[in-house]
Design brief:
- The complex is a heterodimer of chains A (312) and B (130).
- With 312 residues, chain A is of the alpha/beta class.
- Chain A contains 13 helices and 5 strands.
- In chain A, helix 10 links the parallel strand 2 and strand 3.
- The N and C termini of chain A lie far apart (87 Å).
- Chain B has 130 residues and is an alpha/beta fold.
- In chain B, 49% of the residues lie in helices and 18% in strands.
- Chain B has a 5-stranded mixed beta sheet.
- In chain B, helix 2 runs parallel beside helix 3.
- Chain B starts with a helix and ends with a helix.
- Classes of the chains: A alpha/beta (312), B alpha/beta (130).
- At the A-B interface, helix 10 and helix 11 of A face helix 4, strand 5 and helix 5 of B.
Chain lengths: 312, 130
């Protein structure tokens, strides 16, 4: 069962795309108590002097990983990363979990996402580190039950760290995706003025309802802006025309009609013509042409423009 | 109480339909929010058709450029009025439909076929004359 704080957090994360959990929420979610943090510190006092062994051991494992060669080509960089890794575990064993701590962990996730280190590689490294620090390097004199309590507390905090890294990683990837989607959306409706009173919109790719809505509003705004009389939509680059797509296109032509603008569909290939008829789509009184050239000719006719060759 | 009532009445009156005649053209300018009661719609229909019967107009223009919101039944009523005018002879036009309004009408699957549309009054006048 989720407690009410967690339930609210879950609700909020659904509402706003990305909600970063607060310190209290995280500690409650991971059931980390002050006693746990005390245990981590206790174990830290014992393990911190052994860090040089950890680094040696860790990098002897790391050398065999494919990521190693990509990320650590140069020695200086390797030393720098080793240093910051040392610092990472020092901070971990100091166990001062506050907002600053969360921010540092999230930053790490962002860095991983930016350099393109995969999450599986991160988890593998974390698991190896956990193994070395909590089991391999241990030869102290804690009683078995004390040791188990320490290991459990460390594990909880490691899980919290991992969840922060994943959260930051996901947030960044999500932001990138939505940026790309936005850019795609902007690129997808390049309405151009072809002639006085003639506008054109080449459509390439797949038309879904979101894109169709976007197309409709940009078509209408462009008509209002330029006071065009004819609008040519070239669907030569549309890969699939099914009932839904045809419907969207018909709606766009109807909408343009309401602004006193005639809409022409060009680029109707034999395949598209055939499927349209076989699907029984009623194109109504939508004007269609096979090629852009034919559509332009029809557009000239509609606005009473004659284009002729200059006499030699 | 009385002042409130009278100012409400004034406001109501300012939101009424306006008829303008230019030569052989009748222009109906609609208020920002149609929101007509069915009785009002009946009045509009009958008075418009009466005017058309009394005078031979070449065209009747429905100027909707101020209209921000319209529902399906209002649209249906306007469409029927437009078609009835057509039956009496004059060309009839819908002009100045806003983009948001158009998107709403299309998404509501409103009947929009077989009517004349223009971007503005000027365009409708040029088209009906030329």
């Amino acid at each position: 069962m989720m407690n009410s704080a967690a339930a609210t957090a879950f609700q909020t994360s659904l509402e706003s795309n990305y909600h970063l959990a607060s310190l209290e929420e995280l500690l409650t979610q991971h059931q980390i108590t002050t006693q746990d943090l005390e245990l981590v510190r206790q174990y830290g006092e014992y393990i911190t002097p052994k860090f040089p062994f950890y680094v040696d051991r860790f990098y002897s494992w790391m050398e065999n990983m494919p990521e190693f060669k990509i990320f650590f080509k140069d020695q200086k960089k390797l030393l720098r990363v080793q240093g910051s890794q040392n610092r990472f575990w020092e901070i971990f064993f100091e166990a001062e979990v506050n907002d600053h701590y969360l921010e540092m962990r999230r930053k790490l996730g962002e860095v991983h996402a930016q350099i393109g280190l995969s999450l599986p590689a991160y988890f593998a490294a974390l698991s190896v580190s956990q193994d070395i620090l909590l089991y391999e390097l241990y030869d102290g004199d804690l009683t078995e039950s004390q040791r188990m309590a320490c290991i459990q507390a460390c594990n909880k905090l490691i899980q919290l760290d991992a969840s922060l890294v994943v959260e930051a990683y996901a947030k960044l990837s999500n932001e990138r995706l939505s940026e790309q989607a936005k850019a795609m959306m902007e690129m997808s409706t390049p309405v151009t003025s072809l002639w006085d009173n003639i506008l054109m919109l080449p459509v390439v790719g797949i038309i879904d309802s979101k894109r169709a809505q976007n197309m409709m509003s940009s078509v209408l705004h462009k008509i209002a802006e330029t006071r065009a009389k004819v609008f040519i939509i070239d669907i030569g680059g549309v890969s699939v025309v099914d009932t839904a797509v045809a419907n969207h296109l018909i709606k766009i032509t109807q909408a343009a009609r309401l602004m006193g603008c005639v809409c022409l569909l060009s680029g109707v290939s034999p395949a598209i013509a055939q499927t349209t008829i076989e699907l029984g789509i009623d194109v109504g009184n939508v004007l269609t042409r096979a090629t852009m050239r034919d559509a332009l000719e029809e557009a000239f006719r509609l606005i009473n423009v004659v284009v002729s060759k200059k006499d030699a | 109480m009385r002042t409130v009532q009278s100012s409400a009445q004034k406001l109501n009156e300012s939101l009424r339909l306006v008829f303008t005649e230019i030569q052989d053209t009748l222009i109906l300018t609609f208020p920002p929010s149609c929101g007509f009661l069915s009785q009002e719609l009946e009045d509009i229909k009958s008075s418009t058709l009466q005017r058309c019967a009394q005078k031979q107009y070449n065209s009747v223009i429905f100027d909707l450029s101020a209209v921000e919101l319209i529902d399906l039944s209002e649209w249906e009523a306007l469409r029927k009025l437009n078609q009835s005018i057509k039956l009496m002879g004059p060309d009839s036009w819908f002009v100045g439909l806003r983009t948001d309004l158009i998107i709403t009408l299309i998404s509501l699957d409103a009947k929009t076929q077989d009517l004349n549309y223009a971007l503005g009054v000027e365009e409708a006048l040029t088209e009906s004359l030329g």
